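Bench notes, afternoon.
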Amino acid sequence: MIKNLVSPFKISMLMAVLVSGGIYGCSKVDMPDEVISAYQRAIRINPALAEAHYNLGMAYSNRTMSNEAVEELKKAVEIDPNYKDALFQLGLLYAENGLWDDAATALKSVVRLDPGNALAHSKLGDIYKSREMFYDAVSEYKEAA
């Protein structure tokens, strides 16, 4: 009986934490520490929330905390291997850090899941171009067009 009473409370508390984090994240007010804290609380309540890990990763990324961002985005993908947004952001972060193979792998996953994603094809083309893989780059740019 008590278990049933606690569960709705945890769910509504979790939703409040996620909403507050989302509101802070989307607002014009610069409150990055509060955003990070909100998503950390959400993850403590339910560590299996891919969206909370993704949003925390994005909050870290906005604070130029790349290592932390990558770790949270990887957790989001571990929970949901088809999480295209998390895979895309991982690809971008890997590319920013010169991890070209990891970036290409993440972006290939995005285009496998969403073949019409022009931005992912374009970014993958950029990676191939920077590695002087021109044939592959042209192929990706054509897919993006």
